[in-house]
Design goal:
It is built from no helices and eleven strands. By secondary structure, it is mainly β. The strands form two sheets. Strands 2, 4, 5, 6, 9, 10 and 11 form a seven-stranded mixed β-sheet that branches. A four-stranded antiparallel β-sheet has the order 1-3-8-7, with no helix packed on it.
Length: about 120
């Protein structure tokens, strides 16, 4: 079965960095577009970044210039490097994939940006 397991979240001060990882299994990773989403307390889930099978990436406006999505098809991993973090980046970050006709989410990893 498809599994997505995020890690790398934590508490960081404004201006700091975190690198999130998403370990995947149960599907042909190299053939699928991968996405990161986030959800802040009391807010709707929002799209953060997407990466195509060959590494082409696109970002939400708030992520441009600060976040970098990447993937390692040999390890079935997708990453989100987050730099210059701001308090408004606080939330639960989840990776996402569509496989077949179904959508799959990881359990998420908490990112808290606070001084």
């Amino acid at each position: 079965q498809v599994q997505l397991v995020e890690s790398g979240g934590g508490l960081v001060k404004p201006g700091g960095s975190l690198r999130l990882s998403c370990a995947t299994s149960g599907f042909t990773f190299g053939t699928q577009v991968m996405r990161w989403y986030r959800q802040a307390p009391g807010k709707e889930r929002e799209h953060v970044a997407v990466i195509g099978t060959r590494g082409t990436a696109n970002y939400a406006d708030f992520a441009k210039g600060r976040f970098t999505i990447s993937r390692d098809n040999a390890k079935n991993m997708v990453y989100l490097q987050m730099d210059n973090l701001k308090p408004e980046d606080t939330g639960v970050y989840s990776c996402y994939v569509i496989w077949g006709q179904d959508e799959y989410w990881g359990q998420g990893t908490q990112v808290t940006v606070s001084s």
